[in-house]
Design goal:
Layout: H1 3-16, H2 19-26, H3 30-44, E1 49-51, E2 56-58, H4 60-87, E3 92-98, H5 100-117, E4 121-127, E5 141-145, E6 156-169, H6 171-176, E7 192-193, E8 206-209, E9 212-215, E10 222-223, H7 227-235, E11 241-243, H8 249-253, E12 258-260, E13 266-275, H9 282-297
Parallel strand pairs: 3-4, 3-5, 7-10
Antiparallel strand pairs: 1-2, 5-13, 6-11, 6-12, 6-13, 8-9
Helix pairs in contact: 1-2, 1-3, 1-4, 5-9
Length: 298
Amino acid sequence: MDVLHHMRLFVEVAKRKSFRAAAEALDMSNSTLSRNIAELEKTIGLRLLHRSTRKVELTEAGEAYFKRCQGIVEEALSAHEALLDWSEKPAGILRVTMTASFGVGYLTPVLQEFADMYPDIKFDFDISTRAVDLQSEPFDVAIRMGPAPTAPSTLVVRRIAMMPRYLYASPTYLARMPPLEHACDLVRHALCGRSFSARLPDIWHKMYRGEETVEVLAQARYATNSASLSMSLAANGLCISALDPLMVKQEVQAGRLRRVLCDWHMEPVLVHALTETRHLPARTRLFIDFLRQRLADG
């Protein structure tokens, strides 16, 4: 029996608490996986898993074995991937979950370069804002924008970028609205914010210019959790939106958006990559490093 191979299969089942989910992640049949786990239990002489029609739970022996096996399997995979980096190009399916705004605004403009660099990598993109469970769902990395996510201690959170934000509006909007000379003038304008909430004070955003800070005491007329929609609302003349210059580059070049209050800025948006472990396959590690570099360059 290939002990390390069987340990890896057991670790996948233990993490996901499901034979079906583990089989999909391992790209093998459910029956083959079950047979291998049964062989492992027979060799050890202990039952590692409680099986039922609804769920899979670890036995006491299974819990102890899982704690020891997980680190061993991760180190072995990491060593294997390191050798692959030397001997062949990274390959396989890279599964990424991210928001639509990140995918459309940041990833797609630079993805061609990464795809050309590593032609043997295939891509599976999931668009979602929910808190995915990287231990039970088959994602290699989750990309999230905003404050550092409150992640379980079993996950690794890497900051990969700090994206600046400035104010943008369309020429048609600016032509019909009062002039903007100071951040305080924003109270007379239609603004786009992230959400409406009765629990929050009536502050749209804080604006910064050198050491000067202004709290814009205005309620947004439009609210969305999508940067892409916020950009579209501004480009169509409905409002002023706070946007990243990398995301709006094409709209500005086409003349559909114009930066306003150019000497003012807002707090940057943080971008994080969440992974299940520090020991990453080459394709995942290279993807994260690539994003960190390209977003910094932008």
